[in-house]
From TrEMBL:
Top-rank taxon, per record: Bacteria
Organism phylogeny: Bacteria, Bacillati, Actinomycetota, Actinomycetes, Mycobacteriales
Name of the featured protein: Formate dehydrogenase subunit gamma
Binding site residues for [2Fe-2S] cluster: 86, 91, 127, 131
PANTHER family the UniProt entry points to: BIFURCATING [FEFE] HYDROGENASE GAMMA SUBUNIT, NADH-QUINONE OXIDOREDUCTASE, E SUBUNIT
Keywords: 2Fe-2S, Iron, Iron-sulfur, Metal-binding
Pfam families listed in its UniProt record: 2Fe-2S_thioredx
């Protein structure tokens, strides 16, 4: 997992500047640039916002607005294992609330938190596009349908062990 620490000898500002230079010619470059920064640093650190604003001739408010609007952008790095629990109506109707309660009880975490050891982040999303197989969770990049609390435990524990 990447972190907010850039490669040795490189500051966040240097990473942002290099990323902007590589992608600024694209139409609507802000989103691809933000994704690239997050891929490199594990998040879009707050100190990246003014550098992006200056380099792209945008206001800080414009950049911050985009970063804060899209829930996939993070100000802090996610854990090594990331879990997203669908909270849309179809998944709620078949038990996603029990999954949230289970995460709270078993792992001592609320949605949106990362464990202090950096091992796990659990978030909510409002549709993973797998409504017929709810409740659905995403562990890393992989979707899992018809998840109950036992299966969720197996998925999380297996992912954290690997």
């Amino acid at each position: 997992m990447t972190t907010t620490e850039p490669q040795p000898g490189r500051t966040v500002a240097e990473v942002v500047t290099d990323t902007v230079a590589a992608l600024e010619g694209q139409r609507g470059a802000l989103l691809p640039i933000l994704h690239a920064i997050q891929e490199t640093l594990g998040c879009v650190p707050r100190e990246a916002v003014p550098v992006l604003a200056e380099r792209l001739n945008l206001s800080r408010a414009d950049v911050h607005g985009v970063v804060s609007f899209y829930h996939d952008f993070r100000a802090e790095p996610a854990g090594r294992t990331t879990v997203k629990i669908c909270r849309a109506e179809a998944c709620q109707a078949v038990g996603s609330g029990r999954l949230v309660d289970h995460v709270r009880d078993r792992y001592g975490m609320e949605l949106g938190e990362t464990r202090s050891d950096g091992a796990l982040t659990v978030d909510q999303v409002f549709c993973l596009g797998n409504c017929a197989l709810g409740p659905t969770v995403q562990v890393g990049a992989r979707l899992h349908g018809r998840v109950d609390t036992a299966k969720l435990t197996d998925l999380i524990d297996s992912a954290m062990a690997s």
